[in-house]
Amino acid sequence: MSMLKHYVELPRAVHILCLGSFINRLASFLAPFLTLYLCETLGFGEGRATLAMGVFGAGSICAALVGGHLADAVGRKPIMLLGLIGSATVLLALGYIRSYAGILAAIFLLAFVADMYRPAASAMIADLVPIERRPYANSLMYLSVNLGFAIAPVIGGILSKLSFKLLFTLDSTTSLIYAAIIAIMIRETRPATKAGEVSSVIPPMAAFRRILSDRTFLRFCAATLLVSSIYQQAVSTLPLYLKSIGIDRVHYGWIIALNGALIAICQLPITWFVFRFDRVRLIAIAALVTGIGFGLHGFAATSLQFAGAVAIWTIGEMLQSPLVPTIVAELAPVELRARYFGVVSMCFSGGNMLAAPLGGQVLEHFGGRSLWTGCFVMGILAAMLYGSLRSKLPPRAAGVGR
Predict the structure, then answer these.
(1) Most CB within 10 Å of its CB: which of 90, 210, 359, 363?
(2) Residue 197 within any structural domain of the chain
């Protein structure tokens, strides 16, 4: 009960955001099945399909820059609504586009509008929750997202046998439901310096220079980019690799759903347990475990063996997920909070833009063993980068129990 108390006592708005994220993620079929849709339904090759994932990453990077600035300048709530309603609109259109150029344009636009939501939502949670309770709020949000993800690939794998267009329609509908929840039940949280006076907005170039001068934050971002590049293979090259060795997309849906199921079961107790330990050491261990898990895909041959590898890298993901936004919130100045989250969101988007097409090329020309070995090496590098931050972070960000 003492563990659950930390989560139950979070602000009501955090619980509402988590519920909306679960509903939205419950029908987030696009990412796990996009490469298969482009290959099987539209007839594009593996290289072109994974290039489309790279375009998605490029759109996400632009969204992180624009969304982070607007969330600090205009407010968290309107940018979240813009992202959800915009993505719902583009998703509906995507099911009717057949040309490769049109698909790339739609995917870029989808990523741009959808990922404007992320820095605004992360900043809102940081606004609502005091420093010592943020890991619990971030963990609960991550749980809600992955609880939906535990179900979505299984449903998506079955429904994709009927119609990919149905997947796009359901995904669009849940985005609109989440937008309605935010519009009705969430108030704006952008900090104010005085009563009735919203904090001054730092111009984009001045903010950019301040972020570039924060070398500790940039090193943290470099490590996060490496880890996100590894994770991206789960939804870009892994389904293609499984298909190449005779494991169909329904089995892929079950394999990847294990990731969400484990997070749904274990995320809250793991966060409660590790909260007392050093954050930098934990996030370095998380990166290493992630690299090991993905590296083991190169030695797997059956669905059960792939599920075992997924279970290992999911442990790394569960360790890392509440730590990244918690450390960012502590490193970021209040007036740049959403833009710091925007830069971190760019790291995850960079995984889409760079790692998806690069992974596709490695898989196509050098084979799966080379791809998964590369993931293992990146995990080691990320762990070393995270570990090097131990003496650079302020005490509050470096040690969990302080």
Answers:
(1) 359
(2) no
Highest mean pLDDT among 34-48, 230-244, 365-379: 365-379
Could you report the per-residue pLDDT of 112-150, keeping only the tens digit for each? 998 888 889 988 998 999 877 888 888 888 888 777 766
Residue 278's DSSP bridge partners are: 399
The pLDDT value recorded for residue 233 is 92
Domain count, the chain: 1
| Structural domain of 279 | 2-187+203-398
Would residue 196 count as lying in a domain?
no
Question: Within a 10 A sphere around the Cβ of 162, how many other Cβ atoms?
Answer: 9
* Token pair recorded at residue 297: 């895909």
| Cα radius of gyration rounded to whole Å, the chain | 20
| pLDDT for 376 beyond 90 | yes
Angle between helices 337-350 and 117-128 (to 10 degrees): 140
Closest by alpha carbon to 215, among 401, 388, 17, 402? 388
- Asked if residue 174 belongs to a domain, the reply is yes
- Confirm whether 195 is domain-assigned: no
- pLDDT tens for 273-320 read 777 778 888 999 999 999 999 999 999 999 999 999 999 999 999 999
CB of 205 within 8 A of CB of 350? no
Give CA–CA dist 168/152, Å, rounded: 12
Give the whole-angstrom CA distance, residue 45 versus residue 33: 14
pLDDT of residue 198: 46
Judge contact between 360 and 46, C-beta under 8 A. yes
Q: Measured between alpha carbons, how far is residue 124 from residues 145, 190, 347 in Å?
A: 16, 7, 20
Q: What is the enclosing helix (H) or strand (E) of 136?
A: helix 134-159
90-93, long-range: CB < 8 A, 24+ apart = 90/114, 91/30, 91/168, 91/169, 91/171, 91/172, 91/175, 92/168, 92/169, 92/172
CATH of the domain at 256: 1.20.1250.20
Per-residue pLDDT tens over the stretch 61-83: 888 888 888 998 889 999 999 99
Report the C-alpha gap between 348 and 230 in whole angstroms: 10
For 334-385, what is the HEC assignment? Answer: HHHHHHHHHHHHHHHHHHHHHHHHHHHHHHHHHCHHHHHHHHHHHHHHHHHH
| Ramachandran angles phi, psi of 356, nearest 5° | -65, -55
